[in-house]
Amino acid sequence: MSLVLGAWLTTAFVCLGLGAWIRLLMGTRNAPVRDAIQTAFIGWAGLLGLLQLWHFVAPVNAGCFAVISVTGLLGLFSLLPWFNSALCGLKPRMIFWSVVFVALALWAANQAMAPLTLYDAGLYHLQSIRWAATFPVVPGLGNLHEPLAINSSYFLYLAWLQGAPWPWPAYQVGAGFPFMLLAAGIVVSLSRVVTRPSGLRLEDAINLLLLLQLPRFLDRHGTTSTDTPIIAMTLAVLLSLARIFDATEETERRAEVRWLILLASAGATIKLSFAATAATACLSALVWAWVTQRRGGMIWTARLKFFALAAALSATLLVPWLLRNRLLSGYLLFPSPSGACDVAWRIPAEKMANDVRWLKSWARWPNRQPEDVLGHWTWLKPWWARQTETAAARAGMLYPLAVGILVLGLWAGRGLSTPHYPWRYAGLAPPFLVGLASWFFLAPDPRFALALFTWLPAAFGAAFLLPCLIRMTQRSVRISLVAILIGLSVVLNWQNSLWIPVGRLPFGFHSIGRSAIHRVRSADGVLVWAPVRGDQVWDAPIPATPKPWYHFRLRRSGDLAAGFDSGSEK
Q1: CB contact set of 171 (below 8 Å; sequence gap of 6+)
Q2: Which of 25, 161, 390, 463 fits as disulfide partner to 170, beta carbons 3.0 to 4.6 Å?
Q3: Is residue 139 part of a domain?
Q4: How far apart are CA 252 and CA 320, in angstroms?
Q5: Residue 182 lies in a domain
Q6: Which of 323, 347, 371 is the last residue in one of the domains?
Q7: How far is 234 from 358, CA to CA, in rounded Å?
Q8: Chain centroid to CA 189: how far?
């Protein structure tokens, strides 16, 4: 566990430094204590963007880890005044809450050490990481195996972590870092509730309600799945949007809009399905920034400059991501067939159409043929039955109920008047609604929408919870509320793993899954590794594919870095 904690601490310092560089480049002053967590999140988003640019010219390996880490650590020098003030102003209560966070981090580190059993890890995740660490972006890699063309900056991040000179499995520390940032924010909000309720903001109330879901997010989170980090990024976007609606100064609001756009764009590069939520969140923030301009505020040229800067910030992440899509698959929005490019390595259209049909049908009704699922609604009844058949699914449904009972109980117990909803927070609804509609009509697998199912209760429950918190004058009542929240968090997540047994590898890690593989020649004569049975190759040497009978060929004989052509008519 100490190695996992060390990995998180190293990543935190690097991302904090990168975030400091970004804030300085954007002309934003570094940074009160409250902004430190946000600065680290900004740095993580910047790291994802840097890795995409790096991968155009070089593999994401130990050299990449060294260069970016040194750059980030140099950025910490701009934060020395903040570190000095934080240490000089250390109070006993801060030590207590630091101990609380360390205890939570120890449990999270144990959860990160769970064995990797995810099916998709053996199908393509580990192979994607291996390709990223071995070569610059490979044109037509999807022709070898279509899922290898799935362009997620998270795989580059895991390859970057794997380049560290310490023996940690990257996938077991990667997703935990953004969740530790969220956990730190939750602990800070808990301390503020106990000590300074009059200064609470919507962000703090949301954090309190996220505490109820935190154990579920951290349960066995050491995985290669992109579903895990996108939960953290979605909730970071929610918190950033809440700060925008609470901002009272125009300069603060404009800065927060920039950071939201950066986080939302980074989330879209992790998982394409997040794009609808991300775009709507950015639109909500920009509209709010526009309509709340004071009369006599920014002139039109300044407004246009602000929106142009916001667009440029998004482009720094999204343009490289689109170009990587073009190289990996020949499509700008892979795995969608939209944006087909006229390049020699483009995956054939019939393969794309078949893959899309399987993706849509599998999310609705696994193990059924697409023609039995798509084009009608017969899948809806068995789909709903699957959502309610497990204890974990039923426990997840209790979260909105628990939030509603908690908020209504506080209103009744405090004798407050009829809840009045602050309508400026209505802007939190469109990202949820658009994201939910996109999820349901594209790929309605619940694991893709866990963050959205948390978004609505947390956002709107917090809007009603905040007035109750501000009016709690008795310290004992506030401490009791914190105890109730912690108790509810345990009760709602009772089915989760309490403690992960130590593995047999050094430092207690578990070994990666293995499949029997052998070398075969593909239909076009390329020598590849393939599984003896099944379709998982895990961390096999490259090139490896579970479908050696497909038509693909090297674009240049003997040169894997040159990429693959289809070997058949498009």
Answers
A1: 116, 121, 125, 126, 129, 158, 222, 223, 224
A2: 161
A3: yes
A4: 29
A5: yes
A6: 347
A7: 26
A8: 21
pLDDT beneath 50: ranges in the chain: 295-296, 569-570
Cβ of 512: how many Cβ atoms within 10 Å? 15
Count of the separate structural domains present in the chain: 2
This model's pTM is above 0.85: yes
* Of 151, 108, 451, 424, nearest in space to 272 by CA: 151
Range(s) of the domain holding residue 524: 516-570
* Other Cβ atoms closer than 10 A to 376: 8
What would the two tokens of residue 502 be?
A: 């130590």
Strand partners, 410: none
Looking at residue 570, its pLDDT comes to: 44
C-alpha 175/C-alpha 158 separation (Å) is 9
Model confidence over 224-261: pLDDT tens digits?
A: 999 999 999 999 999 999 999 998 888 888 889 999 99
Predicted local confidence at residue 280, as pLDDT: 96
Cis before 81? omega within 30: no
- Burial class, 248, CB count within 10 angstroms (exposed 0-12 / middle 13-18 / buried 19+): exposed
Q: In this structure, what DSSP letter does residue 377 have?
A: S
Q: Is residue 79 part of a domain?
A: yes
Q: Which residues contact 216 (CB under 8 A, 6 or more apart)?
A: 392, 395, 396, 450, 492, 493, 496
Residue 29: what pLDDT?
A: 63
Cα 184–chain centre separation = 16
